[in-house]
Amino acid sequence: MDWVANLGQQVIRSVSRMGAAALFFLQAVVGAVKCLPRFHLVIQQLYSIGVLTMLIILVSGLFVGMVLGLQGYYQLVNFSAESSLGLVVALFLVRELGPVLSALLFAGRAGSALTAEIGLMKATEQISAMEMMAVDPMQRVIGPRLIAGIIAMPLLAAMMSAVGVIGGYLIGHVQFGVDSGVYWSSMQSGVDLYDDILNGVIKSVVFGFIVTWVALFEGYNATPTSEGVSRATTRTVVTSSLAVLGVDFILTALMFGGL
Amino acid sequence: MIIPRGKVTVIMGPSGCGKSTLLGFFGGRLLPQKGSVKFDGQPVPRKRGVALYKMRRNMGMLFQSSALLTDLSVYENVAFPLREQTDLPEQIIRILVLMKLEMVGLRGARDMLPSSLSGGMARRVALARAIVLDPAMIMYDEPFVGLDPISMGVILKLIRELNDTLGLTSVVVTHDIHEGCAIADYIYLLGGGKVTGHGTPDQMLNSDHAEVRQFMKGQPDGPVHFHYPADEYLADLGRVD
Amino acid sequence: MQSRTIETWVGIFMLLGIAALAVLAFKVSGSAGTDGNVYRIAARFENVGGLNEKAPVMIGGVRVGRVARISMDKEDYSAVVEMDIEQKYDNLPSDSGASILTSGLLGAQFVGLDPGAEDMFLEHGDELEITQSAIQLETLISQFMFSQGSSRDNTDKAE
């Protein structure tokens, strides 16, 4: 019957960890608000989080859009509906693939880097040093990174969707000869600013919150050894990816289920 | 345990006896389960807040890993407490930073990044940073670990000189007997969670106390046993698994 | 890294992001340009077929507006289609007709307006009297098969 006790222990540990994560979230938000007067800290983080993730987002967006164009065409041509290719590519990207894929890539690239950075700062006692110098690490270290993540995520998602639509156009028009006017007009007739694009943006903001929060929490609570930091990095990618996919389902059901 | 003002107090003990934890208590980073900590007659606040931060302004701390902020230059690292804690104009900050760097002998290295510093140099920069706000007390967490003899001599000289010229109170945590006794005015020895002995370096070196003797003379076996607790030797050898 | 360089790159990043959002808002979605100056008219149909909201409203193949809302009248069970017509097309005669047409053979459905001859023009809140419901493909086919069957019967009888 040992496994019952073990299970119980695991559950208790997970619950207490979730509680710690929630507390951390509140402290991070307070720190984020307090750091706003010193916006140059945020700009610094926007560089390491946003700018350095931009390239992988753009390249992936192009490929995803092209694949959507390919697959979409193969399916639609069976129903002589290839004129709707633009609509299909755009809707898939703006509603789902743009926010979700860019969140997953963000978690892998920026999230893991954040965790490693914070974990290393903790391991080399920089956080303790800041505390001893009466500097609130939530305000100086964690807050700016949280804000940068929330700003960067929707921009990256928009970039992926935009580039993906162009990628779909490249395949559809250049490869399969779908008329360019038809491509764009079918898209424009079916994609709504508020229902589709705004919802996509809302999704990506939520995802930005989640990924950055998980990354910062894991880094902050990592065991201060190199092994501990690397394990925390893995946990960041896994946890935030699963969380993004789960929340995506909930948000999609809420936003688009009613339509 | 009483840390006298203006003197160098060295806290020694075997690894894992809680010396660094003590420094955590002094600075309010850790909360003791029993007992109390008083700094300059005032109890150390248990909760983070303005009172604790104010008290910490009077404490400088040198961490074992130097804990320099990796994305800032040497100059910026030393200037950090000034920028965060005070509203001093740039010119005054510059003078203060250069003065402290001069004291530790690194004024010429001001634009280097922490990643390009040797261990000894990093520790000196951290020391400059710790004294930049002119605190009343400085805590050193294992300052002698991993230093070559020259850097060791430099740190020893700095700890003693800074204490005397600036009128600081220094608390040094270490397990180097030779270096500890060289700079100490007073020594506390920890073991098994308690103070096992205290006194001046001379008193400690000539002590009759078994635990103190074992540590100060570096004897491999004594009150701190050589063998980790295990089953009877012959029985363990003869056991057939 | 110099802070100047960092700021420049962050600026580029923000610009690209906002540009992407703008592309999405204006080129991908269909809302820009039509929202704002529109007036709403309605038309009742027996059957709207596969007409969707946001489907185009066309005159002679030129898009003049969009379907805003499709609902059912609880009183007489007819389908009510509300359309937003762009303000610049303010000279639609009040006896114009609306039909639900299909673009191509199997394409998306839209509302086609047939201008009438009256001097009075449609204004916000007006309703079109003349409507033509969507043509159901199944109905067409069954009619065709039925007429085929009956003509064969007739031919048999004639012999």
Task: Give a written overview of the molecule.
The complex is a heterotrimer of chains A (259), B (241) and C (159). Chain A is built from eight helices and no strands. With 259 residues, chain A is mostly helical. Chain A has one domain. Chain A is elongated and about 65 Å long. The model of chain A has no long low-confidence stretch (mean pLDDT 89). With 241 residues, chain B is α/β, with parallel strands linked by helices. Chain B is globular, with a radius of gyration of 21 Å. In chain B, helix 3 runs parallel beside helix 5. Chain C is an alpha/beta fold. Chain C has two domains: 32 residues; 105 residues, no CATH class. Chain C is built from two helices and eight strands, in the order H-E-E-E-E-E-E-E-E-H. In chain C, a hairpin with a 6-residue loop joins strand 3 and strand 4. Chain C starts with a helix and ends with a helix. The mean pLDDT of chain C is 80. Chains in contact: A-B, A-C. At the A-C interface, helix 2, helix 5, helix 6 and helix 7 of A face helix 1 of C.
Give a brief description.
The complex is a heterotrimer of chains A (259), B (241) and C (159). Chain A contains eight helices and no strands.
Strand content of chain C: 25-35%
Number of helices of chain C: 2
Order of helices and strands of chain B: EHEEHEHHHEHEHEEHHH
User: Can you tell me the residue ranges of chain B where pLDDT is under 50 for at least 5 consecutive residues?
Assistant: none
Strand order of the largest sheet of chain C: 7-1-4-3-2-6-5-8
What does the overall shape of chain C look like?
elongated
Tell me the greatest interface.
A-C, 38 and 32 residues
Remind me, CATH topology of chain B?
Rossmann fold
Q: Write the element-wise H/E pattern of chain C from the N-terminal end onward.
A: HEEEEEEEEH
The chain-level mean pLDDT of chain C equals 80
Please state the second-level CATH architecture of chain B: 3-Layer(aba) Sandwich
Strand portion of chain B: 5-15%
Global structural class of chain C: alpha/beta
Q: In angstroms, what separates the terminal alpha carbons of chain B?
A: 51 Å
CATH class of chain B: Alpha Beta
Question: Which superfamily, in CATH terms, is the homologous superfamily of chain B?
Answer: P-loop containing nucleotide triphosphate hydrolases
Q: Got a strand count of chain B?
A: 8
- Helix % of chain C is 25-40%
